Amino acid sequence: MAIDGLFLRQLSKQIQECLPAKILKIQQISDTEILFQLRTTQKTKKLIISTHSVYNRINFTDASYITMEQPQNFLMVLRKQIDGGIIRSMEQLGLDRILHMVIEARNELGDIHTKHLYIELMGKYANMVLVNDEGIIIDALKRIPPFENSQRTILPSARFTLPNAHLHKQDPFHPTHINLEESFTKQFHGFSPLLSKEVQYRISQAQTMTSIMQELDQSTSVYLYDEEGKTTFHCLPLTHISLQPRCYELMHGMDILYKEQEDKVRIKQQSGDLFRLVNKELIKNESKLPKLRHSLKEATDCDKYREYGDLLFAYQSSITKQPIITLPSFETGEDVQITLDMRFDIKHNANRYYQKYHKLKRAQEVLQEQITLCEKEIQYFSLLHQQLSHASIQDAIEIREELVKQGYLKAQKVKIRKKKKQEIPHFDTFDFKDYKIYVGKNNIQNEYVTWKLARKQDTWLHTKDFHGSHVIITLSNPHEQALRDAAILAAWYSNGRYSSSVPVDYCPVHQLKKIPGNKGSFVSMQAYKTIYIDPDPEYIQTLIDTHRIN
């Protein structure tokens, strides 16, 4: 769900408290995301602005991002016009999802000019527009020509106009009348359907509109509700939803809420060919496998063709040539119907059946090899599909390099980053008081943490019956808490992320053995134990916030 005007109001208040702020650097993360590095009155902060149609937002962030190698034209305009400038103020226009940022910056001659950056976070219409002091558009992240929107043109040199405001709606902080039979989205500014349901529910439980709005005004937290793979949220506890929320500080909660989904979007923008390749190979092999099995089944029934040849040679002198003949079987005595090719004599027909028998006999071995290879390909690309579904951009880069080495992508057509000598893969490290937990999130990382980083006495974990990460605990006999932490990480970074009672196998590293001839990071275990764990998103986030060091 998108943020509404009242939620944006709380975000805006916290950003305004840090102004004025000097713009140190402007970077582009994706086609729809701009990152500002600011020096505020408190400390250096990073402000992310996203105009994605679904994940649009603005907030301070502590997350690390990989920027685009080829930034768009709008970023270059921002750097030219406002880089090094001072953000003097930022205000929300009423309770609409529009922020007006006033920036003072020097031009090429050193003169100070005022620029206006309008940040419109309105779902699929989300945009960023840079305007000069005369109200003329300098440029926009998403240009809108007249043939797309005759009411509002967003192009350089056009006059900037604000979207149509809903003037008939009331200010929810000072309502004149309330109709509980009608949705609050139609009555008040800044309300989303979700907040409307919540406020109407609370009023039905004898709360007043004034007390609810006071609680919202004082909120500095965000409450996340997870249900059926979807997350709903607001800066008020949603009492009409009978679920236990995850509660975070507002800005940090925004990172938690959006970063994973945005990473997937960024990966698809920058590595869309990986997803297409993996899906193509997976579909191709999954459709090929049943055909191979059917051919093998036919090939294993080849003995009947040898019998046909034997019968034709044995009875060739007494056979009257016709399209279908019936002869008694040598083994059972039952009648066997044999089809003859009328173009050839009996002897030639017998030899043709012998040839078919020998061909199918040889094909059995080849088909079995092809089936084994096809099953390994399905297993390998299913593993890559799982890894890409939870990958960061850096993880996706390593997966790309792996596919180039395997020959699935041509090196000359793929831009590979230049690796430093003996560069270490970007696995996750969780640092505890007396031990560490390493988590590999692709085959390169899994290979490294299991066979190069881990000691023989360390403990290795992996989900049972699910594709997932290799996890290492730097303890030979991990205590219960260490084992549970590592198991929940193994379950979270696997296909069992949203399951319950996920089985996780564990054993000492010296009990592992590589499976020869297999692509990927598959291993076998000589002896192991199993723990069952429920992946808990809130606890996982606590581990990431307090113990992850990279």
Describe the structure in your own words:
Helix content is 37%, strand content 22%. It is built from 12 helices and 22 strands. Helix 7 (303-314) runs antiparallel to helix 8. Residues 412-421 have low confidence and may be disordered.
- What fraction, in percent, of the residue positions are helical? 25-40%
- Mean pLDDT score: 89
Which strand order do you get reading across the main beta sheet? 4-3-2-1-5-6-7-8-9
Q: Please give the number of β-strands.
A: 22
| Integer-rounded radius of gyration | 33 Å
Total number of helices:
12
The class by helix and strand makeup works out as: alpha+beta
Proportion of strand residues: 15-25%
Unreliable residue stretches: 412-421
| Ends distance | 30 Å
- Anisotropy-based shape: elongated
Largest sheet: 9 strands, antiparallel
Q: Which features characterize this protein?
A:
550 residues; alpha+beta; six-stranded antiparallel β-sheet; 12 helices; 22 strands; 37% helix
Summarize the structure.
By secondary structure, this protein is an alpha+beta fold. Helix content is 37%, strand content 22%. The protein has a nine-stranded antiparallel beta sheet.
